[in-house]
Write a structure and sequence with these properties.
This protein is an alpha/beta fold and 542 residues long. Among the domains are: 57 residues, no CATH class; 82 residues; 81 residues, MukE-like family, C-terminal domain (Arc Repressor Mutant, subunit A); 127 residues, Ribonuclease Inhibitor (Leucine-rich repeat, LRR (right-handed beta-alpha superhelix), Alpha-Beta Horseshoe), CATH 3.80.10.10. It contains 15 helices and 18 strands. The strands form three sheets. The protein has a 13-stranded parallel sheet, covered by helices on one side. The chain has a three-stranded antiparallel sheet with strand order 3-5-4. A two-stranded parallel ribbon has the order 1-2. Keywords: Plant defense, Repeat. One of its GO terms (molecular function) is ADP binding. Pfam families: LRR_14, NB-ARC, WHD_DRP.
Length: 542
């Protein structure tokens, strides 16, 4: 109230800057003292949290300005000004290492100032010394006051996280520097580790999305690939943040890294193991190392040559071998003994088959086989009753009995052309949210029952159809799932714009034989539409 009465006594036109608000409750108290005098007053607030920024704006019809990283030119000016007290007069011998240091700083003023301050404090400025500092950024070996200051500021942001977000952030230390991290892969990894808790199972993914977005809003993650809704599909961890969480993970024995800059500690039980690119210093895990407590194993590309038999991992929950192109199908023969496995990522490998006993993995939630050489799944895969996500390569054949997999929420690129029985079974998967189907060369008699069974999948939000050389009639209204938000059917042209297109549709990609003015008006009246991809053939004879 003291602040309020103080402002009442001063002139009504004012400019107020409130720096670094961390809590929405603080803003709730402060805004009481701010008079809406309509005299051109302005309020500027700064914060690291998007939620706080939006709260500040909502009360005064304001706007959120997202501060962009410094350009490369401005980064160089700031860097050299701090070290040499000038912007363009520096030893040419340090140019190359300077560029590498600036790349790590990624345009963040805090990172640039902190590293520059460290270098400025050194008694000599040699190429060797600067490379030592460059190499220490990702290892935590440099413990000067400037690095401690930077880590202190980043640690403040980390300590402000609620416990569940701290755990989810530490999980990201499994990824190498500059690695592009897929949002869905990250979220389902959290689910497999029981980091996400919700009373209703169906909300686990949505809750994971909330965690992901909150870490972005707090600037702990950097969004990379933005979709049509403004949401990040992939992210990366800034080098400085990765340095912090890698150090914290080591202290808490949360993640152990083989192939990184620090040696793998064998003094504690290994709970999560990240085996990164082979840098020539490591050939294989120490055979005496106890791996019986490892819950998570991530292997990156060529590092596949460094791992022992899967029989060493008795309680493994998460196994990700994505993009390990040297992976041999024979290596997976023991995978069926990993009875606690919940997440299995084998995408973008050259494996040709799965073990016939894959059905033994009764707790498996995610099976990712995208862009592999597998053409047909074993018959026992239908025994995976807790499987939530099944991703295969285009046209992969799925055995009879898939209707038993009633927990499925995401089913991608399966071949539905094999038999009418499969089409019927598809209608029993009532939990499906995402469905991508391949329908090349199927019998036209399947079409009517397919649309009928599709209408029973009430939770479908995303439907993609790959059906080259097949004319599917999606123009009727009765089949449309009520929650449908995204519809892709690029290969099969429509004779007219479907009447079922409604106000809830957000993404639409179709081909039309011909478009009329009324069709344009219908499309223009869709309030939720974010993305439209429309190809008009306009040649009925073709």
């Amino acid at each position: 109230m003291t602040i309020y009465f103080t402002f009442c006594k001063i002139i009504y036109r004012y400019l107020i800057i409130i720096d670094d608000i961390w809590d929405q409750n603080v803003w709730t108290i402060l805004k009481v003292a701010l008079i809406k005098s309509n005299c051109g007053s302005r309020i500027i607030t700064t914060t690291r949290k998007v939620g706080v920024a939006e709260s500040c704006c909502s009360d005064f019809n304001g706007r959120v300005y997202h501060l962009a990283p410094l350009s490369h030119g401005d980064s160089k000016k700031l860097f050299y000004k701090r070290i040499f007290n000038c912007e363009d007069d520096y030893p040419n011998a340090l140019k190359e290492v300077s560029e590498k240091i600036l790349k790590k700083c990624d345009g963040l003023p805090l990172a640039i100032i902190t590293i520059a301050s460290l270098l400025a404090s050194k008694p000599t400025k040699t190429n060797e010394l600067w490379y030592n500092v460059l190499n220490s950024i990702g290892s935590g070996h440099e413990n000067g006051p400037s690095v401690e200051n930077m880590r202190g500021i980043l640690s403040l942001s980390y300590r402000d996280l609620p416990p569940h977000l701290k755990t989810c952030l530490l999980y990201l230390s499994i990824f190498p520097e500059d690695h592009m991290i897929n949002r869905d892969k990250l979220i389902w990894g959290w689910v497999a580790e029981d980091f996400i808790h919700d009373k209703q199972r169906e909300n686990l993914y949505k809750q994971g999305e909330n965690y992901f977005n909150e870490l972005i809003n707090r600037n702990m993650l950097q969004p990379v690939d933005i979709d049509t809704h403004g949401s990040a599909k992939t992210c990366r961890v800034h080098d400085m943040v990765l340095d912090l969480i890698t150090s914290l993970s080591a202290e808490e024995n949360f993640v152990s890294i083989l192939g990184g800059q620090q040696p793998l500690s064998t003094g504690n039980k290994i709970r999560r193991l990240s085996i990164q690119e082979n840098n020539g210093e490591h050939n294989m895990l120490d055979k005496s190392m106890d791996l019986s407590h490892v819950r998570l194993l991530f292997v990156f590309r060529s590092a596949i040559d460094m791992i022992p038999s899967l029989l060493s991992f008795q309680v493994l929950r998460v196994l990700d071998l994505e993009e390990c192109q040297h992976l041999d199908s024979c290596y997976l023969k023991d995978i069926t003994n990993l009875l606690h496995l919940r997440y299995l990522g084998l995408g973008r490998t050259y494996i040709t088959e799965l073990p016939k006993e894959i059905g033994n993995l009764q707790y498996l939630q995610t099976l990712d086989l995208r862009e592999t050489k597998i053409h047909e799944l074993p018959s026992t895969v239908v025994q995976l009753r807790q499987l939530v996500r099944l991703y295969v390569s285009i046209g992969t054949r799925v055995p009879v009995g898939i209707g038993n997999m009633e927990s499925l929420e995401e089913l991608s690129k399966i071949n539905i052309s094999e038999s009418p029985n499969f089409v019927k079974e598809l209608g029993t998967l009532t939990e499906l949210r995402v469905l991508e189907i391949w329908a090349n060369g199927w019998d036209s008699s399947y079409e009517k029952p397919f649309l009928e069974y599709l209408s029973s999948l009430h939770k479908i939000q995303i439907l993609s159809v790959f059906a080259a050389d097949v004319l599917l009639d999606f123009t009727s209204e009765g089949w449309v799932p009520k929650c449908l938000q995204t519809f892709w059917a690029w290969d099969s042209p429509f004779s007219i714009l479907p009447r079922w297109i409604n106000c809830s549709l957000q993404n639409l990609s179709i081909r039309l034989n011909k478009i009329q003015q009324e069709h344009v008006q219908i499309l223009g009246g869709l309030p939720a539409l974010h993305f439209l991809e429309l190809l008009v053939i306009d040649h009925p004879e073709n």
